[in-house]
Amino acid sequence: MFSLVLFEEGEKRLRIHSRLLSLWQRKRPKALSPTKIIAVTFAVIILVGTLLLTLPAASRSGISCGFRPALFTATSATCVTGLVLYDTWTQWSGFGQAVILGLIEIGGLGFMSAATLVVFALRKRIGLKQRMVMAQALSLNDMAGVVRIQKTVLIGSLSMEALGALILAVRFWPEYGLPTALKWGIFHSVSAFCNAGFDILGKIAPGQSMIPFQSDPVVLLTLSALIVVGGLGFLVWQEIWEKRRFRKLSVYARMVLVATLTLILTGWVVTCLLEWNNPDTLGPMDVGQKLLNGFFQSVTLRTAGFAALDQGKLTGASKGVAMVLMLIGGSSGSTAGGLKTVTFFVLVLFAWSRARGRSSVCVYSRTVPQSQVLDAMTIAMLMIALAVFGGVFISATSPVGFTDALYEAVSALGTVGLSAGATGILSVPAQILIIIYMYFGRVGVLTISLGFLMGDRAQERYHYAETSLLIG
């Protein structure tokens, strides 16, 4: 009898435990997806950077700059944008500049690259969840070889930054001395490779970016090379290194290279044509300098943000072309932002296919899935709508004309960092909007929408009858 009671009590407890476990599994907080982890971690990095920059030691004057300017700068650095409220050298001390450089490196290479570097150093095992996050951060479709690719990314990135720093330091050394040359070389090499656009040349020309070196081919061409390599994308590096021949590259890598070359050449030619006789930009230069600065302007529009020309004095047509190039940006899985080169390529191919009466999009004897075409159209429409809204909002709330306001909004969304002179006079609401745009532009509009808004998308259980409309 006593054994039967114990058995019944044990069975009751087991049922209670089973119900509690079932309830916990239903109600427990769901694990964050890789896209959410990336978005949240970027926000945390920005917050930490903000707190560091609010310290009095971060400001050259020894007085805290306040929370909002620190947040703006930390967001711009982490999102590798380059828009600033104050000249970087004039406002920030050596400690503040070091914080900004660290945020640029983490934001450019991705926080998972930095975390993986620590894991490699400690010889720790990388788990499945970490591999998923790494794959998402690098814009990979699967996890195959993700650790090997991550190692290549780290080694290649640090090597390119070191080489760029060495070239720039050697160039700066005779004129500015070894300590300054090393500091400038490292800072600007990292900033260029990460497509950040921050500079610390305020010591010689506050707020002028690369204008003091607009006749220096070593500086401009070195920065251009770093910008292009950083904006190609980590996967493209891997393929170029392993396959060495264009025909052996994947369709994606070939599209990236063709789109990048086409956009740079187009921007170079158009900039030279539109600015050749502009007395405020290329006009006073000789032919060689005009070609050099036209080329650099085209390259820096690929989300880099260094300015060798005064952006506020460009012609209206040049600003229009610049905004298109800034909105397109660099390539997926790279240090660059923007709509992305292949996304733009797919949109052009789609328009060309529809103009010829074809329903499918084909490239290099391959068909692009319809779902990816729709994704490209969705993110393009979203980016354009945000840019226009930003231009209207900034113009309405700040003493800025619509063209320059739109230039500012596109620059923030594309994480470019070029400004026509509006950043310093933005109203507080406009500054907040720019902060949001820089974050969206870096983390990715599509990543945010998929990760937060569509993570639990319901299955479509029914369809309405189709209807015909007049289009065009």
Shape: globular
What gyration radius follows from the Cα positions, in whole Å? 25 Å
- Average pLDDT, all residues: 82
Write down how many β-strands occur, each being a DSSP E stretch of 2 or more residues: 2
Q: Estimate what percentage of residues fall within beta strands.
A: under 5%
For the sheet with most strands, the description reads:
2 strands, antiparallel
- Helices and strands, in order, run as HHHHHHHHHHHHHHHEEHHHH
Count the domains.
Answer: 1
> Percent helix among the residues?
55-70%
**So how many helices?**
19
Measured between the Cα atoms of the first and last residue, the distance is: 86 Å
Q: Which strand order do you get reading across the main beta sheet? A: 1-2
Point out poorly predicted stretches.
452-458
- Class of secondary structure makeup: mainly alpha
